[in-house]
């Protein structure tokens, strides 16, 4: 390749009466050129893959090292926030400042978590538990946790009368549905409605999360679950994000033997549908589920 020797090609003629001519020489040179290009491409691909592995290893180490002090910082910030609520000495400005610290630290922690998970997926190192999980109870906990952030939105759960059992990793599945519900909250306008419907279809548990938000452009939907992809519109340019959340969501759902899809119309809202295999093991005890949650 150029002036570098990558290897040699040997040609032989079985007949003593046959001699190489100019056509044979041209063919040999063309074969050698193509072989050299193939070898160089293989070398470049190997080098690129090594660089990707080194990048993922660095991101994994960096995310892990930063996450520990950040978790401590977030814990103390939340403690300070609770103390400020009980105190008459904190001013409105103090309350606002503490709230901003908690929100931004939580955002940074979520970003680091996505980075860590994405690197683990790429390296094949992410481990999953396989325990019986009641999706009704799990999603109900998430609904309760996002209630303070509804900000004028209405959130309604339906079809949650009985336990909906699957088998998997509770922490990872909680990450999936927290991400989808938080996105519905983030991209919905004041006064909008978010609906979570739980049902079964054959041997699958079906969870649909719908919102009346800004929607997703049709051209962006095929790329929505790709790594680092972000929808770029006038409505989303002011909303922070890494482009890793939905990638991680899809990988977790896939590792659980499930599927995720989305239907959306710009200006009207989106519906994310998750299907997971039902688990016919030991049933979980029934848990009362809140049906209607708002910020009144």
From TrEMBL:
This is histidine kinase. InterPro entries: GAF-like_dom_sf (IPR029016), HATPase_C_sf (IPR036890), HATPase_dom (IPR003594), His_kinase_dom (IPR005467), HisK_dim/P_dom (IPR003661), HisK_dim/P_sf (IPR036097), Sig_transdc_His_kin-like_C (IPR004358). Keywords: Kinase, Phosphoprotein, Transferase, Two-component regulatory system. It holds the Pfam family HisKA. Residues 61-280 form the Histidine kinase domain. It is an enzyme of class 2 (transferase). Its EC number is 2.7.13.3. It catalyses: ATP + protein L-histidine = ADP + protein N-phospho-L-histidine. GO terms for molecular function: phosphorelay sensor kinase activity. CDD domains: HATPase, HisKA.
């Amino acid at each position: 390749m150029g002036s570098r020797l990558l290897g040699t090609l040997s040609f032989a003629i079985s007949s003593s009466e046959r001699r190489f001519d100019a056509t044979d020489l041209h063919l040999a040179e063309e074969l050698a050129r193509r072989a050299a290009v193939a070898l160089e491409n293989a070398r470049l691909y190997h080098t690129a893959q090594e660089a990707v592995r080194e990048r993922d290893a660095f991101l994994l180490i960096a995310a892990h090292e930063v996450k520990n002090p950040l978790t401590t910082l977030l814990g103390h910030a939340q403690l300070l926030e609770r103390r400020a609520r009980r105190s008459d000495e904190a001013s409105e400005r103090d309350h606002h400042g503490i709230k901003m610290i908690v929100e931004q630290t939580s955002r940074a922690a979520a970003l680091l978590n996505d980075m860590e998970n994405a690197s683990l997926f790429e390296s094949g190192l992410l481990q999953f538990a396989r325990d019986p999980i009641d999706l009704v109870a799990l999603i109900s906990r998430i609904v309760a946790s996002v209630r303070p952030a509804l900000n004028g939105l209405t959130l309604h759960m339906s079809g949650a009368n009985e336990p909906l059992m699957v088998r998997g990793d509770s922490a990872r599945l909680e990450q999936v549905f927290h991400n989808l519900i938080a996105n519905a909250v983030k991209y919905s306008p004041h006064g909008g409605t978010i609906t979570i419907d739980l049902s079964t279809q054959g041997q699958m548990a079906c969870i649909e999360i719908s919102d009346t938000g800004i929607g997703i452009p049709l051209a962006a939907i095929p790329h929505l679950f790709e790594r680092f992809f972000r929808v770029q519109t006038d409505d989303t340019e002011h909303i922070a994000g890494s482009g890793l959340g939905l990638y991680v969501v899809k990988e977790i759902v896939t590792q659980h033997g499930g599927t995720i899809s989305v239907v959306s119309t710009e200006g009207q809202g989106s519906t994310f549908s998750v299907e997971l295999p039902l688990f016919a093991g030991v049933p979980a005890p029934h848990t009362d589920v809140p049906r209607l949650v708002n910020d009144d």
